[in-house]
Amino acid sequence: MFNRTIINDLKHWKEQKDRKPLMMLGARQVGKTSVLKRFGKECFEHCVYFSLDEEAGVCDIFRTTKNPTQIIEQLSYLTDEPILPEKTLLVLDEIQDCPEAISSMKYFCEKTPEYAIACAGSLLGLAFGHEGFSFPVGKVDHINMYPVTFSEFLEQKDSGLYRYYKSIDSIEPLPQVFFDRLSQAFTAYRISGGMPEAAMKMIEVDMKGVETKLQNILQDYTLDFVKHATPQLANRISHLWNSLPSQLAKENRKFIYQLVRPGARAREYEDALVWLQNAGLIYKVSLCQTPQVPLKSYEDLSIFKIYCLDVGLLRVLSEVSPEAYFNDNPAFKEFKGALAENYVLQSLTASGVKCSRYWASGNKAEVEFIIQEGLDIIPIEVKSGTSVTGKSLVEYNKKYSPKLRLRFSMLNMKKDDTFVNMPLFMADRAKELIERLTCQ
After folding, report:
1. pTM of the predicted model as reported, rounded to 2 decimal places
2. Rounded distance, CA 298 to CA 113, Å?
3. N or C terminus of the chain with fewer C-beta within 10 Å?
4. What radius of gyration, in Å, describes the C-alpha atoms of the chain?
5. Tell me: the pLDDT tens digits for 405-424?
6. What is the spatial distance between Cα 183 and Cα 324, in angstroms, rounded to a whole number?
């Protein structure tokens, strides 16, 4: 089982004096259930688990009373483990299937805060807009969970190499022996992505198992579209989701509705976009032509790109075989770049970097991402290999003279005045290194 860094966030939540019931957000099969069970086992005397989509009787308890003391008493009859204040972690999984349970968190927060309750659901984000129940605004804590990161993958794959990776604390070229070994591990990660079951199959060198796990997850997502949306909306969600490869195959990856379906219009697919975002399956990156603080005030929400939650899922959704990473095929160059962008985005997001905007200057230049770090705007360019020709970052520098310019590629670490090149596999470490650079 992977050591997930989110355990540290959960431990911090446990120790907070003003702790509220926890809502863990994240897409299906990113590992929420296993992490909460592990957290409960390691940090509490007891851990009690209920899956609300499998145990309908549990939902009935929340429907018949709002009194948290009565709810705890009745839940206790269904488990051999005691449910005790501070000593038991009560895990309510797939809670989106029971809106009354979500609403009840308000009363647990107000009347019985001594109970540690963690709620999770593969489509919990969709419940926030659900009509017919009151969401406990301000009465719950939130934690977002993402696929396994490259750092977490590396720790499981090669603990010695992981220790070296975590020891890197300066922008200097890595010794070639470490650069080569990290590159090899990174290629393995790009193939499997970060869905835990698929990533573990990659560590076991079971390529067939990797493909099977990823295909099964994609099939589960398709079934979710049908289960949790109206037939018309489910159809649109499916069309939009399956258009991801063609959206990202273009040199200009701007989202085009015509690629979803001929004649498609924005108003027809807005709900489908929101559904996929709330389910945690896509990231939306909006255009920001004026990179000034605050970035949010200058973004153009009508022009955007969309990316997948996981680079391994995107590869299989795009029907790209693992062998493509081992062959220098010019036909794969363009889409390899899209996969690299997707990887950087999911890595930065998982490390807490808000990476939801890009910059473009007409048809002349485009920088894949721009992020706000304090009062600094940092442009981020992404290259999939060692060929780093392109003038976009240079053009950006001429216009705005940023304090820091960052490029991810498969070249070694390098710093030249305000410009920094980081190997793609360093994306997990970028946040702490960026903070160090911007404080200098």
Report:
1. 0.94
2. 41
3. C
4. 23
5. 999 999 999 999 999 999 99
6. 15
